[in-house]
């Protein structure tokens, strides 16, 4: 008996063809819906845990909740151990979650059992949960082997304030009535202690974040020329590249560079370096067409038995389709 357990998904699009006999629905996960721009990253100069940063992001995000008190996310304990001094850049909510996952050596995905967004490390087990025998495979597996790993270098970001204030935003244009302006500092610049000067209107309120701000302005009812200037102290972001791995026996191999704007502490950098090394030392990727297990997830470990030998690997990509019966394909990084 083939089965597919319930996957919590949410309606994205639907259409009714001309014959009106069928309806086509497209459902996606909570994570896929989180495409709203997030501007609320804060800079204090002190280190904050990724747990606090990710939780604040989720609490102020557009994530779908089935009840006001629901917290549909799960974070690995490592996020409470690692820290950063960097403010989140301006990007979509889901892109920032991916940035946090990358900076902590984790995966970002959706838990298929409850639909919750999760940042997690793969479960370290001595035995895999699944075995793919030759009888379950729909054809021969294919193999891809990448070059040997030669070196890894990871960027470390540090911050320093400029000595004097500068203009970081300016506006000249027509406004009328009450206007709410969302402003972003050029090039994603980090700004500290911003101040606003305005002519032609009255500043009702201002709220600032590390790279952006929200101004509420009261102008006359008729269109009026308004000039706004924001000045502040620019926080410069400098990068130091640190080589964390070099295999002198490899003369012409893969040279990997990892730059993540949230890596500001050596402990965090080492976690990323270790995760990068472990990934690239798994040189062989195997693509396997098979009958399809609905409960297999990316990051699961699997035993593969084939004419070319047996091995254990970690699933990096899984596809599943149903047309009277399941079939799918897996990409596995051989251990």
Q: How far apart are the termini? A: 32 Å
How much is the average pLDDT? 90
- Quantity of strands, as a count: 23
The arrangement of helices and strands along the chain is EEHEEHEHEEHEEEEEEEEEEEEHEEEE
Strand order of the largest sheet: 10-21-22-23-20-11
- Helix/strand-derived class? mainly beta
**Proportion of beta-strand residues:** over 45%
Q: Residue ranges: pLDDT <50 for 5 or more in a row?
A: none
Number of helices: 5
> What form results from the Cα inertia axes?
globular
Rg, nearest Å: 25 Å
Task: Report the major sheet.
Answer: 6 strands, mixed
The percentage helix is: 10-25%
Short description:
With 335 residues, the chain is mainly β. The protein has five helices and 23 strands. The strands form seven sheets. The protein has a six-stranded mixed β-sheet with strand order 10-21-22-23-20-11, with no helix packed on it.
Question: Can you walk through the features of this model?
Answer:
The protein has 335 residues and is mainly beta. Helix content is 13%, strand content 46%. The protein has five helices and 23 strands. The chain has helices spanning 30-33, 50-59, 78-81, 93-103, 266-280; strands at 10-15, 24-28, 37-38, 48-49, 73-75, 83-84, 91-92, 107-110, 117-120, 130-132, 142-145, 149-161, 166-175, 178-184, 190-199, 202-208, 212-218, 224-246, 254-258, 284-290, 301-306, 309-322, 326-334. The strands form seven sheets. Strands 10-21-22-23-20-11 form a six-stranded mixed sheet, with no helix packed on it.
């Amino acid at each position: 008996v083939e089965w597919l357990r319930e996957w919590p998904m949410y309606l994205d699009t639907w259409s009714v063809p001309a014959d009106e006999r069928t309806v086509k629905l497209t459902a996606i996960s909570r994570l896929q819906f989180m495409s709203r721009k997030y501007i609320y990253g804060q800079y204090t100069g002190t280190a904050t845990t990724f747990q606090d940063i990710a939780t604040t992001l989720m609490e102020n995000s557009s994530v779908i909740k089935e009840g006001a008190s629901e917290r549909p996310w799960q974070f690995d304990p490592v996020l409470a151990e690692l820290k950063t001094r960097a403010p989140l850049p301006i990007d979509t909510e889901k892109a920032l979650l991916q940035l946090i996952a990358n900076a902590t050596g984790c995966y970002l995905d959706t838990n298929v059992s409850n639909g919750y967004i999760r940042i997690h490390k793969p479960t370290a087990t001595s035995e895999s949960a699944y075995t793919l025998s030759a009888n379950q495979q729909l054809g021969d597996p294919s193999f891809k082997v990448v070059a040997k790993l030669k070196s890894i270098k990871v960027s470390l970001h540090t911050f320093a304030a400029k000595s004097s204030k500068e203009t970081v935003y300016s506006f000249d244009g027509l406004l009328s009535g009450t206007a709410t302006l969302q402003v972003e500092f050029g090039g994603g610049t980090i700004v500290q202690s911003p101040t606003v000067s305005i002519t032609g209107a009255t500043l009702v309120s201002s709220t600032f974040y590390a790279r952006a701000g929200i101004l509420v302005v009261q102008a006359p009812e008729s269109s009026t020329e308004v000039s706004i200037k924001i000045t502040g102290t620019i926080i410069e972001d400098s990068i130091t590249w640190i080589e964390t791995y070099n295999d002198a026996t490899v003369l012409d191999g893969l040279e990997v560079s990892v730059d993540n704007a949230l890596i500001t502490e050596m402990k965090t950098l080492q976690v990323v370096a270790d995760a990068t090394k472990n990934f690239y030392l798994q040189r062989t990727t195997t693509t396997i067409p098979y009958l399809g297990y609905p409960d297999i997830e990316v990051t699961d470990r699997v035993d593969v038995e084939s004419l070319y030998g047996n091995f254990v690997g970690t699933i990096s990509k899984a596809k599943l389709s149903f047309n009277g019966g399941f079939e799918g394909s897996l990409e596995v990084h051989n251990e």
